[in-house]
Automatic annotation (TrEMBL):
Domain of life: Eukaryota
Protein name: Core-2/I-branching beta-1,6-N-acetylglucosaminyltransferase family protein
Membrane topology of this protein: Single-pass type II membrane protein
Entry keywords, A to Z: Glycoprotein, Glycosyltransferase, Membrane, Transferase, Transmembrane, Transmembrane helix
Subcellular location: Membrane
Pfam families in UniProt: Branch
Location, primary (coarse class): membrane
TM stretches of this protein: 30-52
GO terms under cellular component: membrane
GO molecular function, one term: glycosyltransferase activity
Amino acid sequence: MQPRLMALEEGKDLAPTVRTYQHRALPLRVLQFFLVFLVLGLGVSVCSMYMIRFFKIPNAAPVVQPTIVPSCFVELDSIQSWIRPPSNLLHIMNDTELFWRASFVPQIKSYPFNRVPKIAFMFLTKGPLPMAPLWERFFKGQEGRYSIYVHAMPSYDANYPPSSVFYRRQIPSQVTEWGRMTMCDAERRLLANALLDISNEWFILLSEACIPLRNFSIVYSYISRSKHSFMGSFDEHGPYGRGRYNEKMAPLVNLTNWRKGPQWFEVNRALAVKIVADVTYYPKFKDFCRPACYVDEHYFQTMLSIETPHLIANRSLTYVDWSRGGAHPATFGKVDIKEEFFKKIFDSKICLYNNQPSSLCYLFARKFAPSALEPLLQLSSEVLGF
Ligand SMILES: *[C@@H]1O[C@H](CO)[C@@H](O)[C@H](O)[C@H]1NC(C)=O
Ligand SMILES: *[C@@H]1O[C@H](CO)[C@@H](O)[C@H](O)[C@H]1NC(C)=O
Ligand SMILES: *[C@@H]1O[C@H](CO)[C@@H](O)[C@H](O)[C@H]1NC(C)=O
Ligand SMILES: *[C@@H]1O[C@H](CO)[C@@H](O)[C@H](O)[C@H]1NC(C)=O
């Protein structure tokens, strides 16, 4: 598992920049907001007092009140303030506060408004998104059916133009090390931020090396009609599976409960809340699954297969090629991108979809090098359908 260790070192280099991102510029904005508020409020009350005295309005209160009430008070009274997604993703909540807020669940199941359920695409990246132009094409014309969240290293300054789907979609982030709990922390942070938008119903974790294999309509209908969430999860014997289990996790997690699976998942809203709200499994995995136990391959996979086995499909939607051997999967570059390459992926497997055999098993694929972008853009409309 050498590549993981290398990446881990890269993570460490960035340590001094921890948590500077969140606090930048925000207190100033809050201060400005309150100042404007104060001046407005004072102005309105002085003005109305003057008017009451001058015109000797007998029953002043009902007449004056509507002009005094500032617009944000009106919003608090309306359902809109509860269903509108946050306008700015850069909040100042820490993880404890964020996870608590994100774990709110309505107890009445039918929504008192027309809710179009959205898919949250959550990009866990180091920095840039080399496949952004392909994703832009994928999302084109689908506004209102998706939202995007990006967790990059805190030191990375994203610079997308306002016309981009990635513009201002960065969430407050922290340094993340591959194979360690900080990786699961980042995944939970992405889920929690996405949960703040009540219209997000499905949550997909992706990396900068992922691409979509199908167009948005197919992805949306496949995910929205599935009875299961796509968390890859299996019981693997041998050193890289059961070999990573630590007996100190029993009886919460026994050896037969131990699962492994790819990091890249899709979960529905109920499972996303479960993951964000977990305080039971988290400390066990934090203490007893450390390299060479790579916690992002075991924590959610094991927890969900104990808690809600009937809700997960036990397979991932993201294709990856381990056939070249070695400790890490194949990375595809310019020379790999041909029509036959995708035919091979599409024909590679039969899986279960809603308990029926299906040949449509993968909606995404990894890992793609930046050099793959140009040929991908050339054949995407013909081969990938967008
Ligand atoms: C977040 O802030 C609260 C209140 O100050 C504190 O109790 C909590 O420990 C903080 N959490 C983190 C992860 O820093
Ligand atoms: C693990 O084993 C113990 C003892 O047999 C049992 O009480 C416990 O429920 C098991 N845990 C799980 C998650 O099945
Ligand atoms: C996934 O695996 C669990 C056992 O871990 C099983 O109970 C469940 O039925 C499986 N899900 C599907 C859709 O087959
Ligand atoms: C998506 O792809 C399918 C099959 O390739 C095609 O029938 C459909 O028209 C495409 N939808 C859009 C919106 O491009």
